[in-house]
Design a protein that fits this description.
By secondary structure, the protein is of the alpha/beta class. The protein has a single domain, classed as Metalloproteases ("zincins"), catalytic domain (Collagenase (Catalytic Domain)), CATH 3.40.390.30. The protein has 5 helices and 4 strands; from the N terminus they run E-H-E-H-E-E-H-H-H. A 4-stranded mixed sheet has the order 1-2-4-3, with helices on both faces. Helix 1 links the parallel strand 1 and strand 2. Helix 3 crosses helix 4 and helix 4 crosses helix 5. The model has no long low-confidence stretch (mean pLDDT 96).
Length: 143
Amino acid sequence: MPSPKISFHSLVPVTALKKRKQLKNFLARLFTLEKTRLASLAIIFTGDPHLLSINKQYLQHDYFTDTISFLLSEPGDPVLGEIYVSVDRVRANAHTFQTTLKEELHRVIIHSCLHLCGYDDTTKDLKEKMQKLENKWLARYFK
């Protein structure tokens, strides 16, 4: 299978994401090690109003969120995915959780990639498992 196409699109400024090529390579490796074939991934940085609109339209949720991921491929096919990230929400969460914008931004990207790999966080146990995976991948990225 050819190398996956990973692209970044900024609808709002994103200053905390400097090493994009390094991150693309890392995310491709994450999918490989999670035994998920990746064909294409678009990561779109936006603000709260746009992501709220997406959340309402596609998920029928009327609240702010930091990231939403969409799996666009058919089951069994390599992943075609889109990840939308609210830089506003990530910034607020970084303040709330007393971490850096850079770390929180990478955390939500990893979180959404894990969703595209098939992980779920709808129960307490699944959420704990996913947080452990996030922490594992974040530590690997920042080592």
